[in-house]
């Protein structure tokens, strides 16, 4: 069934907005996924602040031509049935969500991505991004490293205090 011109313009406008706001756009082939699988993917993506869009590649090319950042971007990788994952909040969330889903659904395979600078990312680049720790994990690791000397000092002092108390107790009972 053909899509009306108004519907196509609405889809292009939605994609222009998504591309403009997105810190990373990842696209993947979903050829053998069921509707239930796609609904599950969308639910997982929503929890991570990622938007999943299924749209014709031709309409994505039109949307990219309307965004200054993506006017000169190579779109040769946009072939086949693709879904697009975008996030305005996190730089690696789209790659992580799709990678996590692909582990249990091998029918979903990365096809590439676009950075917010308009660069085309290869499949290997996207997989490398998916393997990175999340922003929250990295912040937690930095905080743990910063607090490490405080914990070490506290543990050393409490150990000496216990030894002192044990010595006083031993003297008192003797």
Description:
The chain is of the alpha+beta class and 174 residues long. The chain has two domains: 5-132, Ribosomal protein L10, N-terminal RNA-binding domain (Alpha-Beta Plaits), CATH 3.30.70; 133-174. The longest helix is centred in the last third of the chain and has 39 residues, at 135-173. The chain is built from six helices and five strands. The model has no long low-confidence stretch (mean pLDDT 85).
Please write out the topology.
Layout: H1 5-21, E1 24-29, H2 35-47, E2 51-54, H3 57-66, E3 82-87, H4 93-104, E4 109-115, E5 120-121, H5 123-130, H6 135-173
Helix pairs in contact: 1-3, 4-5
What attributes characterize this protein structure?
174 residues; alpha+beta; Alpha-Beta Plaits; 2 domains; five-stranded antiparallel β-sheet; 14% strand; elongated
């Amino acid at each position: 069934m053909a899509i009306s011109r108004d519907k196509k313009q609405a889809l292009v406008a939605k994609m222009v907005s998504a591309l403009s706001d997105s810190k990373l756009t990842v696209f993947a082939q979903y050829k053998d996924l069921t509707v239930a699988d796609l609904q599950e993917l969308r639910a997982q993506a929503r929890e991570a602040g990622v938007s999943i869009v299924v749209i014709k590649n031709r309409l994505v090319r039109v949307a990219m031509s309307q965004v200054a950042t993506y006017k000169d971007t190579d779109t040769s990788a946009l072939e086949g049935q693709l879904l697009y994952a975008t996030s305005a909040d996190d730089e690696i969330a789209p790659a992580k969500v799709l990678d996590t889903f692909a582990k249990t659904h091998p029918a979903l395979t990365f096809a590439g991505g676009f950075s917010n600078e308009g660069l085309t990312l290869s499949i290997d680049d996207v997989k490398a991004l998916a393997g990175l720790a999340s922003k929250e994990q990295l912040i937690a690791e930095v905080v743990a490293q910063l607090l490490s000397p405080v914990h070490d000092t506290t543990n050393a002092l409490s150990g000496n205090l216990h030894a002192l108390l044990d010595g006083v107790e031993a003297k008192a009972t003797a």
